[in-house]
Write the structure tokens for this entry.
Amino acid sequence: MDILDVEKSKCIGCGACVSIDAEHFDFDDDGLSEVISNDNLKSENLQNAIESCPTGAIRLAKTSEAYEGNVNSSSDYKQSSTVVNAISES
Ligand code: SF4
């Protein structure tokens, strides 16, 4: 199962993902992006939103690849970023 997530510490609240893909993203109370759906993860809008994030804050990865253990560790984030980059290039 794939998991979509926003790394809050990386999000600057620019709103690009919310504008491009309101199905998956909305603003939280702090004005940062949050994931509101984990359905339809192969949508073109989602891919565009991931590619449009200026800080690489959006993560989409297999649970077995990036979300085992502590998801906040830097090694996990690098691993999930690699997955996102692979998706973006395909
Ligand atoms: S595009 Fe990236 S930086 Fe901008 S609101 Fe979305 S997650 Fe945050």
In short: The mean pLDDT is 82. Helices lie at 16-20, 44-52, 63-66, 74-89. The beta strands are 2-6, 25-27, 33-35, 58-62.
